[in-house]
Design goal:
By secondary structure, the protein is an alpha+beta fold. The protein has two domains: 99 residues, Phosphorylase Kinase, domain 1 (2-Layer Sandwich); 216 residues, Aminoglycoside phosphotransferase (APH), C-terminal lobe (Aminoglycoside 3'-phosphotransferase, Chain: A, domain 2), CATH 3.90.1200. The strands form three sheets. The chain has a five-stranded antiparallel sheet. It has a two-stranded antiparallel ribbon with strand order 6-9. Helix 9 packs across helix 10 and helix 9 runs antiparallel to helix 11. The N and C termini lie far apart (48 Å).
Length: 326
């Protein structure tokens, strides 16, 4: 498909003052989704998110129309998100896709936690993340697309099944499954909208504006708000700044204060530990896809080796009393 040509034809439907699309370039291309940046000739900066024809869809991923609907709902609730301009129709010639405004900022975690350019906004990022998550978790669930509901025990069971299907034998992961099963909290009384992948990499950070956009909503679901709070605390998303448990840039107290202070630190730390376990299993999955020839990219093999990092994190978490987890 000639995506650039299709965007050119679509331009007048995206802005009443545009006649063509310019500077179309593909930013990334995973196994299932493509991201393109382009501009309209009236100066409007845009992003296209599309699923190529025939591309496999992750079992837990949303359709792009549903993803766009969630972004719009989160924006209405006051969360910073890219503004959705159009959900593509068949006549647009782009397949399953939507177009949104392009935000200015950085998503690379290593730069966000280390570069001097972000030194001014880092001290307030943890609290800001809590505030933004509070707005996402307050989105009215009535009227949202049909979303799966998950809880702690359900997630444990799902990832343990995947682990066994992989045929792996990792004693630390198996011990972590049993430990987390023994301390799993009950489901929340009222499941909320959970982003599902709120972490460095999916947050657009501006050097002076701070957190200006929450990206990649394909794993959103209904569940425990502590899941989002715990996921951003997983050590793998700190990019070496392990002393700052929230994303490598902040502390638990600021994150929880920003969220409103109603969720206990122990509940967040449980989900942090479960996040490390899930990431360990995901790394095994990526290595398996490389080893079986399903995906021969070096990236898959490299990420697969990171299972050991997750195991180190889990050992540290299991050795600490629940009130001392970090």
């Amino acid at each position: 498909m000639d995506v650039a040509a299709a965007l050119d034809r679509l331009a007048p439907r995206l802005s009443p003052t545009a006649t063509e699309a310019v500077n179309a370039r593909r930013l990334s291309g995973g196994a299932s989704l493509e991201t393109w940046a382009f501009d309209l000739d009236d100066g409007t900066p845009l992003i296209l998110r599309r699923r190529p024809d025939g591309a496999a869809m992750r079992e837990t991923a949303l359709s792009l129309a549903s993803e766009a609907a969630l972004i719009r709902a989160a924006e209405q609730a006051g969360a910073p998100t890219p503004r959705v301009v159009r959900v593509c129709a068949p006549r647009d010639g782009l397949g399953e896709a939507y177009v949104m405004r392009r935000l200015e900022g950085e998503t690379l975690g290593r730069r966000i936690v280390r570069d001097q350019a972000f030194a001014g906004v880092r001290p307030g990022l943890a609290r800001r993340c809590g505030e933004v998550l509070a707005r996402i978790h307050a989105v009215p669930t009535a009227g949202l697309p049909d979303l799966a509901t998950s809880d702690a025990r359900g997630e444990l069971a799902r990832y343990e099944e995947i682990y066994h299907q992989l045929g792996a034998q990792r004693p630390i992961l198996e011990a972590a499954f049993r430990w987390l099963e023994s301390i799993a909290p009950p489901p929340p009384e009222r499941p909320v909208l959970v982003h599902g992948d709120f972490r460095n990499g999916n947050l657009m950070i501006h050097p002076t504006g701070g957190l200006v956009g929450v990206l990649d909503w394909e794993l959103a679901h209904l569940g425990d708000p502590a899941e989002d709070l715990g996921w951003i605390c997983v050590n793998s998303w700190r990019f070496g700044e392990w002393r700052k448990p929230v994303g490598g840039f902040g502390d638990y107290a600021d994150l929880l204060a920003g969220h409103g202070g109603e969720i206990s630190l122990d509940r967040v730390r449980f989900w942090q530990a479960l996040g490390s376990l899930k990431w360990g299993v995901m790394c095994l999955m990526m290595y398996s896809s490389f080893a079986t020839g399903q995906d021969r990219s070096i990236e898959r093999a490299m990420i697969g080796r990171r299972t050991s990092e997750a195991e180190i994190d889990l050992v540290a978490l299991m050795e600490a009393p629940m009130g001392m987890l970090s």
